[in-house]
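# step 3/5: fold
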Amino acid sequence: MQALVTGGAQGIGYKIVESLINDGFSITIFDINPETLNKAKASFGCEVFEIDVSIESDVKEAISQLQSLDVLINNAGIWKPEPLDTLDIDIQKTVWETNVIGTLNCTKYALPILEQSDSSCVINLTSAASRTNSPGLGMYAASKAAIETLTRQWSLELAPIRVNAVGPGMVITEGTASNYEGKALELRSNAVPLKRVGDTSDIAQVVSFLASPKSRYITGQVIFVDGGVTAGAPGHN
């Protein structure tokens, strides 16, 4: 089985790659960061491409080099938090281009190869931010909401290829670690119904499930892995 993981050289993507390799997958990684990409290649021995997923021609060329593909995981994404009154439109365009157009590019050009597999699926990464309506996130939450809509749309359009999405909540990665330093970790943990912040393995295990035959009758779903954050406000005595 062959999987392509975008943004797979660090953070949640790196753990997804590790998990899928443990499941017996051969992996190709797309990532924009050459330093982390080389480290991932050294660690996993997998095929890697230095790719900006928002650039259609580059995605098309890289995917054309794949001989087979069973699972596409659209994990590559960025966020640039800015309040509306001072945000930079050009910066927020990069969020949309990476998160939404990048997912579109990869799925479009992977489709002909995925159609050759008897058990193919697409797994998109969204975020609990699409539901929590936190202020000051610029286009990030909106971009993830768009990915959820595309997930449901593509599950109908691309069937029998399965299309699902996974939505992480608060997760500690290289990019978010500074948000959980000192007292912040306790405060954030207490805001989660399960009373802890997630780690990358929490997300990777759900992705592995969706990539496996165990989920063969699941499509068009968005699964939030967030300790209950998107379930709603806790009750009051």
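# step 4/5: annotate
Strands lie at 2-6, 26-31, 47-50, 71-74, 121-125, 162-168, 222-225.
# step 5/5: archive (pending)
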